[in-house]
Amino acid sequence: MPTPLPADIPLSFWDDYRKRIEADIAEARKELAPLESGERRLGERKSDGMWRDTTEEWIRHYRHVIRTFEVRLAALKKGELL
Known about the structure:
Blueprint: E1 3-4, H1 11-37, E2 43-45, E3 51-53, H2 55-77, E4 80-81
Antiparallel strand pairs: 1-4, 2-3
Helix pairs in contact: 1-2
């Protein structure tokens, strides 16, 4: 069952919170775009000196972050907390 937004917290707080979530989604999408397009690759150097491509891991990470923020944003727009 959804939890309604607490009545004792001003609506301006929730509006600012919504704006921060929207900004976080925009930033995550900005970081994700060059990875998905192949414009940018990420990796790490292993102890043996070999390069390991971690681009797909980062793509999954950013997609997860975006989904999480979108769920929070949807709940907030309904006047609910997760």
